[in-house]
Amino acid sequence: MARRTVSSDPFEAIAQPKRRQVLETLARYPGAGCPVNELVVSLGLPQPVVSKHLAVLKGVGLVSLEKRGRQRFYRVNGEGIRAVHEWAARFERFWTHQLTSIKERAERRARDLPTPNTSEEPRRDHD
Amino acid sequence: MARRTVSSDPFEAIAQPKRRQVLETLARYPGAGCPVNELVVSLGLPQPVVSKHLAVLKGVGLVSLEKRGRQRFYRVNGEGIRAVHEWAARFERFWTHQLTSIKERAERRARDLPTPNTSEEPRRDHD
DNA sequence: GCATCCTATTCCGTAAATGGAATATATCAA
DNA sequence: TTGATATATTCCATTTACGGAATAGGATGC
Question: Cα separations (Å) of A103 from A45, A94, A114, B31, B91?
Fold first, then answer.
């Protein structure tokens, strides 16, 4: 049961390294975006593969599309990636504080406290 | 051919919503971390499922582990998430600039590019 | 009309992740 | 030792994503 559904959230979409590559490549183009054939050359991947990845990225809103002539210009749509950025930012305190002091404090608390499961309420201790 | 390997990079690991839940729950605990049984209660998932997700997170360095008695305390390891945060930050300009000005610039450039067949007014009839 | 270019989509085989259940391992307690 | 607790691991079935090849669709040019 409960498989992953790549077509629903940006985290799934960027899980695939090639799709991150697509985004990184797109990001190097100006606001007008980049047509598929140029992406195909840049990435060195078969065109159907690129198109399929673009379809996934578009499905989750990570890129947007503009048709011009027979080409389709894709460009990065920041909002989706912003969500990822903000999710990760929630964990900022885990890398801004030095790990060593966190570890020390963790071990000190571990020794001194009975067991931290007496309350349902999560604790926030900071230094 | 080229499958995704969940046990190799943090992007794969956080693709799974339940693993993000695990991280979010862990983040609410103090530096000492959280034992598995408490995670099981908090998440309402079967214990083997939680353990398996923790194994994946540990495999990619998103959590670290400290044994104490028969319990194992897991805590968030910031470095892995930091990588995600920094990757997303590379796209910051796509959401800090207003979308409207980006669009305008896109269309201006689209007119100026050497691609043929855009001598007319650019079309805005789709997104 | 027809041919050509650009892109999307379908079909298919394979590899892999997920969850459930049962079991194994490890630690403590009596 | 035996038993209970805490966690990990194995086996299994299901579902899914991925890539490749071929094909379809759509726009342009002749």
Answer: 45, 11, 18, 7, 32
